[in-house]
């Protein structure tokens, strides 16, 4: 397989890692108003991701850097065309990160509540907008080729807000929400854990319905694709493990439920990347204007250099992340929150 295609799947792997890890971060942030009854509850919920949320976000930085280096045309066209949506995501991530650090500065109850709502808003917008953007990528966006050989996105932010795009955004939002609620159940004790399990059962059903509708719509749109068989297989696997996650949570098996949610993201996003293949951006104006993997990639020398760097550094990154999660593997107990300040 050529390096161009290998790097397409490496970028896909990094983005899947980002959604798996930062996905439950977003879900935890969105769940605060639903699971907490007092400030101790909120601190307990936030502390489940306190040691890892910033580490999870580095996957997005690495994915963006690899996208820029391996596929500069894809990076330039998508970031210039989707700039307003991506700007909103960036502002939300900044707002969320600042709120984690400032909510416990002791400026009063109103101060804390404001930053709690900033965490909720900053956790709500990114999955909604990411899902909308990715849905539009596989559906096709208005795009033309330019005289200099590049590509130009000719739509606006409102072009992305079509029924299929919004369904994709809603599906990713619900997946992240349920993923995060299951993580809260896995990492807490007492009433918060009980409430999280009950909420995951309810939100899981809605998530299953939304995901099924989105995946079926995706399959219908790509019936003529060369990868339709793999798209169907990955979509079916995503549906099966998502239902399995709901059943596991219903039976109180939070660890199994969380693991199956991870595989849901892997299979669902895998289906999305297979729907894109062999393109990176599909033109709804004219299929001839679509941006292929080979047309968007860097030179062979650049990709070869990046491959050696990835071989040397990626195992270290994965090992460090695994070690971090192992160190902070214990449940966050309410008694610990009462006895110690939030970190």
From TrEMBL:
<keyword id="KW-0249">Electron transport</keyword>
<keyword id="KW-1133">Transmembrane helix</keyword>
<feature type="transmembrane region" description="Helical">
    <location>
        <begin position="6"/>
        <end position="35"/>
    </location>
</feature>
<dbReference type="InterPro" id="IPR003317">
    <property type="entry name" value="Cyt-d_oxidase_su2"/>
</dbReference>
<feature type="transmembrane region" description="Helical">
    <location>
        <begin position="114"/>
        <end position="138"/>
    </location>
</feature>
<dbReference type="GO" id="GO:0016682">
    <property type="term" value="F:oxidoreductase activity, acting on diphenols and related substances as donors, oxygen as acceptor"/>
</dbReference>
<feature type="transmembrane region" description="Helical">
    <location>
        <begin position="255"/>
        <end position="277"/>
    </location>
</feature>
<dbReference type="Pfam" id="PF02322">
    <property type="entry name" value="Cyt_bd_oxida_II"/>
</dbReference>
<dbReference type="GO" id="GO:0009055">
    <property type="term" value="F:electron transfer activity"/>
</dbReference>
<keyword id="KW-0472">Membrane</keyword>
<feature type="transmembrane region" description="Helical">
    <location>
        <begin position="164"/>
        <end position="186"/>
    </location>
</feature>
<dbReference type="GO" id="GO:0019646">
    <property type="term" value="P:aerobic electron transport chain"/>
</dbReference>
<feature type="transmembrane region" description="Helical">
    <location>
        <begin position="227"/>
        <end position="248"/>
    </location>
</feature>
<keyword id="KW-0813">Transport</keyword>
<keyword id="KW-0349">Heme</keyword>
<feature type="transmembrane region" description="Helical">
    <location>
        <begin position="198"/>
        <end position="221"/>
    </location>
</feature>
<dbReference type="GO" id="GO:0070069">
    <property type="term" value="C:cytochrome complex"/>
</dbReference>
<dbReference type="GO" id="GO:0046872">
    <property type="term" value="F:metal ion binding"/>
</dbReference>
<comment type="similarity">
    <text>Belongs to the cytochrome ubiquinol oxidase subunit 2 family.</text>
</comment>
<feature type="transmembrane region" description="Helical">
    <location>
        <begin position="82"/>
        <end position="102"/>
    </location>
</feature>
<protein>
    <submittedName>
        <fullName>Cytochrome bd-I ubiquinol oxidase subunit 2 apoprotein</fullName>
    </submittedName>
</protein>
<keyword id="KW-0408">Iron</keyword>
<keyword id="KW-0479">Metal-binding</keyword>
<keyword id="KW-1003">Cell membrane</keyword>
<dbReference type="GO" id="GO:0005886">
    <property type="term" value="C:plasma membrane"/>
</dbReference>
<feature type="transmembrane region" description="Helical">
    <location>
        <begin position="305"/>
        <end position="328"/>
    </location>
</feature>
<keyword id="KW-0812">Transmembrane</keyword>
């Amino acid at each position: 397989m050529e390096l161009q295609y290998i790097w397409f799947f490496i970028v896909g792997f990094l983005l899947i890692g980002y959604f798996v890890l930062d996905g439950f971060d977003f879900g935890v942030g969105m769940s605060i108003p639903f699971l907490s009854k007092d400030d101790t509850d909120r601190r307990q919920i936030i502390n489940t991701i306190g040691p890892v949320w910033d580490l999870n976000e580095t996957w997005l930085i690495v994915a963006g850097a690899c996208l820029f280096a391996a596929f500069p045309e894809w990076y330039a066209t998508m970031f210039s065309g989707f700039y307003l949506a991506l700007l909103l995501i960036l502002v939300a991530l900044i707002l969320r990160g600042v709120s984690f650090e400032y909510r416990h500065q002791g400026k009063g109850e109103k101060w804390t509540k404001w930053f709690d709502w900033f965490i909720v808003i900053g956790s709500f917008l990114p999955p909604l907008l990411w899902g909308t953007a990715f849905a539009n990528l596989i559906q096709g966006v208005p795009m033309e080729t330019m005289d200099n050989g590049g590509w130009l996105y000719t739509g606006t932010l409102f072009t992305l807000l079509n029924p299929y795009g919004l369904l994709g955004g809603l599906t990713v939002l619900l997946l992240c929400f349920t993923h995060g609620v299951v993580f809260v159940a896995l990492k807490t004790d007492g009433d918060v854990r009980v409430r999280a399990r009950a909420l995951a059962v309810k939100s899981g059903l809605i998530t299953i319905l939304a995901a099924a509708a989105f995946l079926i719509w995706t399959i219908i749109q790509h019936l003529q694709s060369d990868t339709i068989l793999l798209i169907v297989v990955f979509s079916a696997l995503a549906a099966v493990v998502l239902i399995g996650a709901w059943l596991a949570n219903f039976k109180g098996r939070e660890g199994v439920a969380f693991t199956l949610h991870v595989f849901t993201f892997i299979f669902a996003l895998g289906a999305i990347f297979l729907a894109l293949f062999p393109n990176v951006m599909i033109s709804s104006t004219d299929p001839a204007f679509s941006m292929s993997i080979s047309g968007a990639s860097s030179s062979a020398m650049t990709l070869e250099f990046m491959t050696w760097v990835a071989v040397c550094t990626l195992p270290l990154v994965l090992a460090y992340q695994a070690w971090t999660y192992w160190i902070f593997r214990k449940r966050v107990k309410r008694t610990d929150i009462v006895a110690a300040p939030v970190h």
